[in-house]
Amino acid sequence: MAVDVAVVASWNVDLIAHIPQPLTRGQTRMAHAFERLPGGKGSNAAIAAARQGAPVGLIARIGGDDFGQMGLDLWSREGIDSQHVVRGEGETNGTALILVYEDGDNSIAVYPGAGAGLSAAQVQAAAGMLAQARLVMASCEVPLAATLTAFEIARAHGVMTLLNPAPAMPLPDQLWPLIDVLTPNEGELMSLAQAPDIESAAHQLLDRGVGAVLVTLGAHGCALFRPDSAPLRVAGHAMRVVDTIGAGDTFTGTLAAALARQTPWPEALRWANAAAALSTQAHGAVTAMPTAAQVQAWLEQASTEHLGGCHDNR
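Below the sequence we write its predicted structure tokens.
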């Protein structure tokens, strides 16, 4: 299967407890709801891209337990190519412990499990898929050696790359010039660059060789920075939020699908914003991700409004 979007993907199962407000140290509080849902930034973004009509393929490493099988079944239903997914028999699958608060915000602790074993050699084995894709995407939930190898292959074949630098961590010098699009939130951006403001921080990363820095700013929208171009800013869009889990992944995956089909930046941001906004209207990550038809219908309904906003779950 030829793919447009190839994802070096994390996969985990989200164990979600709903509580009124954040816990203080040592505090125990009764949850009023609990869910077990599919997650992982890479898998989430891959599903978001697939629901926007992009042919998607995964490179991932999952556990040999029931949680690992849950991922394989999910990707099959979503029409995602999983031939480059490896199972670590006897290994624990990645898991995310998530607390969701009444205002829709959340806190997340991620255990990578078998995903920590995703290697450069496994990525190299999928070089054929990477070379034929239109966009290769990764996050910092997978080992950096795997991402670096994938982006080196992509660059050698003229394939666009997109990195969501979450969770934030120091990146190797050789990776920066291989990143065509970087999608940090404000906190991640400021941890990657020492600067007094967002614009200065973004330009620091551009100076390291990044092709474009797209900063998500929660309720304040988002901003795109490119060399030799004026910033492109998109205002926030007010939504009655159910929860924000997976909204940032929805934005990233929808953006990847749009860029893979060579959509111009303003329209790509508009489409990704709409998908992210819609994803806040239901619980969970995958369960809330809209299809292309749902995004189109929402855009048509909102055509007389100023549509914007980047919703971020990180």
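The two ends are 32 Å apart (CA to CA).
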